[in-house]
Design goal:
There is one protein chain. With 98 residues, this protein is of the alpha+beta class. The chain has one domain. Helices cover 44% and strands 24% of the residues. A 4-stranded antiparallel beta sheet has the order 2-1-3-4, with no helix packed on it. Strand 1 and strand 2 form a beta hairpin. Helix 2 packs antiparallel against helix 3. The radius of gyration is 15 Å and the shape is elongated.
Length: 98
């Protein structure tokens, strides 16, 4: 019983961190991390052309760090520092490129 309370607190903290875009969701099939304007695909695969487009969009927007996660249901999750207009451009590139 005494282990149940800390477990619930940790699970709630994790869910809030995912909901408010501090950490990527665990269910992502593609995870792209941006660090010092360097793009790195750490989970899944992203073809060369969409990868170049994503890199160009991020460089033009001046995004230096963050993440982009694509779930198995083709839902895109972004870190908090990526603006809404940029998010839509990235969704268009990642989800609509064959």
């Amino acid at each position: 019983m005494w282990l149940l309370v800390p477990t619930i607190i940790i699970a709630a903290a994790w869910l809030l961190a995912v909901k408010f875009d501090f950490v990527p969701p665990l269910s992502s099939k593609i995870l792209i991390k941006i660090h010092n304007q360097q793009l790195r695909v750490t989970r899944g695969q992203l073809r060369a052309q969409p990868r170049e487009f994503v890199s160009d969009i991020l460089q033009q927007a001046g995004i230096t760090h963050g993440y982009i996660a694509i779930t198995y249901y083709n839902h895109a999750a972004f870190s908090r520092n990526i603006p809404a207009g940029i998010r839509q451009r990235l969704r268009n590139v990642i989800l609509n490129t064959p």
